[in-house]
């Protein structure tokens, strides 16, 4: 099997797809899902099914990592899963340590990917049984937990974070009502009937707002965009990873678990890992200011989530995220039938998928290294050129989503909104997650009420719901209670 996977007919398309993934992931607006969607039609022309699967798996992992490159260097997430990486990656770049931040990112992506695939191999049946138990009631609280976590860990006060998340949820109601089919807040505009797409909103809030911020502070436009060390810092990153090895491990395991929940995705995994890392850190006040733990946690989790997303896809034929939904369609074309019997009926094919996923993490080291070197050189250009390029890619990325100028106008509008949010210290990340998770909150809540005949008790008395509510309670009150107990303990100690 190894001889077949490393044949020219498989290896060359595999590596080329990973280079393509680096490019797509690093361009704001061109998501990992889009990269896979563009690769799948090409993969159909491969005579070998393993070549097609290698292209799809390769482009997925590299695109998720590459999304962190502009997130770290420019504070513009290349993909939604990279939004959490802006919180500490960009401040570290501003301190002249962008190379260290991305080297950490690359190593954590590979380690997280290896752990995620390893758990996929050894624990997929058990984890899939847990995921399949999630109903509308559990998904409602999972979405609420994700929103609250993003608000709690973002820069600024909790109230401002929750306000941004609530505003994002309000924006998610624009369009067609999922139950009644009536239009809401469209003001007679046909384009708004399909809702506000989160990619143009995200590009505006992070990309265009950053351009406006640069114009506001009147930074010199003829100086390089990046300063300080942007080179590959392997030894320094390795020492930091050894110091924070437990953060890497727990974030990778958490990412795999979240990824195994259908519909959760790498973005929720990254936010959850970031939140837990901050809550359990000895130096939580450093988060948002360039803390290495704030880089290690989300970048370990988002690539681990990709492996986790394959668990329900392979075992039950249920897509874990948008990417695996596309992959399931491709597997059908290759006459591979996912489900409980795939391990018995197609053991060689399953082993090939596992081997491809593992080797992709090794190849990612080299592809990521080339991506870091290439983009660090590009960003040595004068700030005026880079900012012009950011505006250009922001427009192109927004327009390419649906070939619609309406999305460009949305991006421009939220660029201004993001500029004012930054001026008033309101974090933009919870707004994005509110826009993404808002439909899930509304849908699962209304479906749950329909299932229970209007009875709200199932939202509170089911075991997994109770666990998620307890985690929410800890998010709000865990730190104050801990401080109170600690102060009481100190005050009760006898004086020396």
Q: Which outline best applies?
A: globular
Spatial gap, N to C terminus: 70 Å
* Tally of strands: 2
As for the number of domains, it is: 1
Helix content: over 70%
Main sheet? 2 strands, antiparallel
Work out the strand percent.
under 5%
Rg estimate, integer Å: 22 Å
What average pLDDT do the residues reach? 78
In spatial order, strands of the major sheet run: 1-2
Count of helices? Answer: 22
Low-pLDDT ranges: none
Look at the helices and sheets and give the structural class: mainly alpha
Give the topology string: H per helix, E per strand: HHHHHHHHHEEHHHHHHHHHHHHH
Report on the structure:
- Strands 1-2 form a two-stranded antiparallel sheet.
- 74% of the residues lie in helices and 1% in strands.
- The protein is an all-alpha fold and 496 residues long.
- The chain has helices at residues 2-5, 8-26, 32-43, 49-66, 68-74, 86-94, 98-132, 136-153, 158-172, 198-217, 234-243, 245-259, 265-280, 293-316, 322-333, 342-345, 347-378, 383-402, 405-423, 429-451, 458-461, 463-492; strands at residues 175-176, 183-184.
- The chain has one domain.
- It is built from 22 helices and two strands.
- The mean pLDDT is 78.
Q: What features would you highlight for this structure?
A:
496 residues; mainly alpha; two-stranded antiparallel ribbon; 2 strands; 74% helix; 1% strand
Briefly say what this structure is.
The protein has helices at residues 2-5, 8-26, 32-43, 49-66, 68-74, 86-94, 98-132, 136-153, 158-172, 198-217, 234-243, 245-259, 265-280, 293-316, 322-333, 342-345, 347-378, 383-402, 405-423, 429-451, 458-461, 463-492; strands at residues 175-176, 183-184. It has 496 residues and is mainly alpha-helical. Strands 1-2 form a two-stranded antiparallel sheet.
